[in-house]
Amino acid sequence: MSDEFETWLDAFDLMYSALPARGATPCPDCGGTTLHLVFTGDPRSRRAYAQLWCEKCVRGIHVSQTVVPTGVPMNDYRMPREERPHQAPDFVLIQP
After folding, report:
1. In this model, does residue 1 exceed pLDDT 90?
2. φ, ψ for residue 22 (rounded to 5)?
3. I need a surface site. Which of 15, 27, 42, 83 has the fewest CB within 10 A?
4. What is the DSSP string of the chain?
5. Whole-angstrom Cα distance, residue 40 to residue 86?
6. Which residues touch 52 (CB under 8 Å, ≥6 apart)?
7. How many Å apart are CA 48 and CA 65, to the nearest integer?
8. pLDDT tens, residue by residue, 46-56
């Protein structure tokens, strides 16, 4: 796993630990405090994939499977992408 990806996973852990609050975790690349975390999955099981990205430098990661804590909003994977209330923009995906 690349050092860059591991740094982003550390940021994911900090953001995840702060839930349901947004937290003020700095971006591992640009240092901005504009990180966003969106979950998409099955609302019944609360299992989802996550997208974490920086609004400022438009870079981020995809986490293939996680549990979404109760009370944290998430997209239902069965909804068409364009109808999902929480959207991630196209961002530069950092590879593991």
Report:
1. no
2. -75, -35
3. 83
4. --HHHHHHHHHHHHHHHHTTS---PPPTTT--S-EEEEEEEETTTTEEEEEEEETTT-EEEEEEEEEPPTTS--EETTS-GGG-SS-PPP-EEPP-
5. 9
6. 8, 11, 12, 15, 35, 36, 37, 60, 61, 63
7. 6
8. 999 999 999 99
The pTM (predicted TM-score) of the whole model is 0.93
Mean pLDDT of the chain: 95
Half-sphere exposure of 35 (CA within 13 A, CB side): 28
pLDDT of residue 60: 98
In Å, what is the CA distance from 18 to each residue of 3, 24, 69, 80? 23, 9, 11, 29
Q: Residue 79 has which token pair?
A: 């909804």
Q: Alpha carbon of 16 to those of 20, 51, 68, 69: distances in Å? A: 8, 11, 9, 9
